[in-house]
Design goal:
SAM-dependent_MTases_sf; alpha/beta; nine-stranded mixed β-sheet; Methyltransf_25; Methyltransferase domain-containing protein; 14 strands
Length: 326
């Protein structure tokens, strides 16, 4: 299988800086990308496999454990909407400066694990002179992207096909970033938390035992697959890499459930609760693969969902990290 495959449909187009994308009317291929092949519609099924009435990727190398079907896509879209409502934008940091129009060079953005491509398409509308590329292991993004957007299939756990210093803004990996380029990541911590200073914050396992156990079991299963679940380490990793400056972090605590007295936060809390209910359903196959019985998983999820309904003060931490490549 090629390292990356282009799979979108589009009409003929030319970017504002004069860079032309060749198209055959169904799929387009940039002539400079010699290692990229087209993906025909008949090839789509081979990137998926069905198990337990859920659809998963078929990659033999990717450790990604969650389904890629419609229910999971709806969860990811709902979470994207929630984060946009939370921070009031599709990004934070000096993105407009990094992606400012340059008559001498077209800025290039890379979105890793683009999923449905919602985030990439929304930010691409704001910067029509910028080229946006999304890469994922399954073709679940739109096949009719904007003229300045393309989606490719590839496994980000393997070497990316682009040379070093290729991108101005990455969401989120580092090797192919240009000096001065912007790194941005946003991740929801898989743990329950409470406001610091309150008694539950010191011992969440006492005040939210079912939720604490649920996330412990999920994190153990992720760790078993070689996936580091501790998103709080991202900033330290960038600082220790020695190739980044201006590493900034921001943690936003979001209510879980409808306990908050402020209407807007109450609505966000209810939305996040619904997203976490979907997440709990999506991790069930992974937990079965980890050796847990169906009865144990069902009780684990049932108790977690019930606790979200009955635990005032419960929070989820959303970690935002941005850094500049030196």
């Amino acid at each position: 299988m090629p390292s990356a495959i282009s799979y979108h449909q589009n009409s003929d187009n030319e970017s504002e800086n004069g860079s032309v994308d060749a198209t055959d009317g169904t799929h387009y291929i940039r002539h400079s990308d010699h290692d990229v092949d087209e993906l025909e519609g008949s090839e789509f099924p081979r990137y998926f496999h069905e198990s337990d009435n859920r659809l998963f990727h078929s990659s033999p190398t990717s450790p990604y454990p969650l389904p890629v079907d419609t229910p999971e896509q709806e969860r990811l879209k709902a979470f994207n909407i929630l984060i946009n409502q939370l921070i009031g934008a599709h990004f934070v940091g000096p993105v407009p400066n990094i992606l400012a129009y340059n008559p001498n060079r077209q800025p290039h953005v890379l979105d890793l694990c683009n999923g449905t491509g919602t985030w990439l398409m929304e930010i691409a509308r704001q910067f029509p002179w910028v080229l946006f590329t999304g890469i994922d292991i399954v073709p679940i993004a739109t096949r009719y992207p904007l003229p300045n957007v393309r989606f490719e299939i590839g496994d980000i756990t393997e070497e990316l096909r682009w040379p070093d210093a290729s991108f101005d803004f990455i969401h989120a990996r580092t090797r192919v970033m240009r000096p001065g380029g912007l790194y941005l990541s946003g991740e929801l911590e898989t743990a329950v938390s409470f406001h610091s200073g309150n008694a539950p914050a010191a011992s969440p396992e006492q005040y939210a035992p079912a939720s604490t156990l649920f996330f412990q079991v999920v994190n153990d299963a992720l760790q078993h697959r070689g996936i580091n679940h501790d998103v709080s380490q991202i900033a330290d990793h960038l600082r220790n890499a020695g190739s980044f400056v201006n590493v900034e972090t921001r943690v936003i605590h979001i209510p879980v459930g409808g306990w908050h007295s402020v209407t807007s936060w109450k609505e966000l809390g209810r939305d996040l609760q619904g997203i976490l209910v979907r997440f709990a359903d999506s991790v069930k196959p992974m937990l079965r693969d980890a050796g847990h019985t169906q009865a144990y998983i069902d009780l684990l999820v049932q108790n977690f969902e019930a606790e979200m309904d009955t635990t005032p003060g419960m929070l989820a931490a959303y970690h935002i990290v941005q850094a500049t490549r030196s």
